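Handout, page 2. Input:
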Amino acid sequence: MLTMGGKDMATVVDLAHGRAAVGRRLRRPDPAHTLLIAVSAAYCLLIFLRTPQSMTLTFDEVVYASQLSVDTPAAEFADHRARGLPLLLAPVVMVTEWVFALRAYLTLLSGVLMYLAFRPWLTVFGRVGGRFRYVPAVAAGGFATLWMAVLFGTMAYPNLWLAFLLVAGVGFFCRAVVEPPPAWGPVVGVLVTFALASLVRPPDALAAAGPLLVAAVLVRRWRRLWPPVAVGTGLLIGWGAWFGEAVARFGGPLARLRDGAESTGSGLVNALPANLVAVDGPSLLCRSASGCGGVDPVAAAWWVLLPVLVAAGLAVAARTHWLGAGGLATASAVAFAVPYLLLLDYSSPRFLLPGYALLALPVAGLLVWFTGLGGDRSTRALITAVVAGAGLLHVVIQQDVLETAAGRMENTYGRYTRLAEFLREEQNVRPPCLVWGQGAVPLSYPLKCHSAREPGGQAPSEGDPAIAAALVRGDTVLVRIRADEDPPRFMAGWRRVELPGNRAYVGYLPPADR
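Output:
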C-alpha cells in the first residue's frame, strides 16, 4: 500500500488551494467589463422609456426603410445616400411594417452596439491598468447621456450607427498595432467595422480612417502590414458598392459626387455657429444659425467646454501612458468632423455624433484621473463626489432637452399619422396609390403608397409624369398642395379635400368614376 508523507500531503493541499484560487479568479467577473454591460443596458432602457416608440417614420427614415420594405414602394433614393442603412433595417422591414417593431429593434440594437463599440477599448485600457480600466465604461456612459444619442437610438438615421462602428474600428486598430502579430482578431475587427462604416456613410468612414493610415506610416512601433490593409480593404468594400451604384444609377462617380454636393449645399463655410445653435435642440435640422433660435448657454456649455476637456484628457494620457490610443481617437474624431464644420452650410445635432463618441474616450480618461487625485481616502471621495455631481447635473440638463425635442418631433409626425388614418378611412386612399406633393414621403409609409415629393407645396405642372403614370396604372392619386395654389387644368374635375391637422394644405383626389 502506498502511503503519503506529511510533506507530500502539504504539497497536495497547497496545489488544491492554488487551483481553487485560480478558479475563483477566473470566475470573478471583471468589474470594468461588468460596468460597460450595465451602462449599455441602462442606455437601451433609457431609449425605450424616453423616446416615442410608435411614432410614424420621418422623411429620411421612410427613404431608408422603404428600399427593402415588404409592402411600401421604394421612395426616391438620392445620390448622397448610401445603402448600408437599408441593410441594417432589412431584418424588420422585409417582414413587417409595424413601426413599433422597427423602433424596438433599433432600441435593442443601440444597446448591443454601445457595448460592442466600447468593448475593444477594455483591452486597450486594460494594459494601462489601475482605475483607467474603467475609461471605456465611463466614455460609453458619457456618450449615452447626450440627448441626441438617446433620441436617435430608436431612429433610422445613419449617424449614430456610424458612431458605434467608428469607435469599435479605432479601438480594434489600437489593439492590432500593439498586440503580438499577426493579431488576427483585432485585424478582422478593423476590416469588418470599416467595411460596415463605409457602407453606411462612405465619405465619413474615409475621413475617420485617414489618421489611422497616417499613424500606421509615421509611428514606427505601429508599422505593421495587416492593420492598414484591413482599414483599406474595409473602405474598398463600402466604396466599391458606392461606385457600382454611381455607375448604374447616377451617371458615374464624378456625377454622383457633383450632384451630391449640390443637393447638400456643400462649399467652404463656417458652420461652427450653426452647430452650436443645433446642439442645444430642440430643432433637428438647422438650415441657418438664426433658423433654430438662440443658444441656451446652460444646455450648450458641454459643447463649448469639449475641446478644453479633450486637451486636458490628452495631457493626462501623456503622463499615464495611453497617449497613442487617446490621440488616435481624437485625431479620427477631428478628421471626421472637419467636413461638417467647414463644408456643409447647415447642421443637425446628429451630424457630429461619431465625433462625440470618439472624443468621449479622452474626456473619460480625464474624469477617471480626477477621481484618483488626493493623498487620502476622504479627499479622493470628495473629488469623486464632485465629478459625479457634475455628471448628474449634465444628465438632468440633457434629459430636459431630450424631452422638448422628442415632444416636438412626436407632435410633428403625429399629424402625419392622423392624416394618413383620415385619408385611408375617410377618403379610401389605399394601395395601389400615389401621394404627390408636400409631405408625400412621410405619408407614403403608413398608406403604403408610391411618393412624389414637392417640398414647396406648389401645384403640379401639366402632364406631371409621376401623376400621369399613376393614372395609367389605375392607382389612387392624392395631390397635397398649398391651399392658395390653383390646381392645373388636368385636375379641374378633381375633388378638393380639406385635410385635418394643417389647414395651410389641401388635398385633391380624382373623381371616383375616372
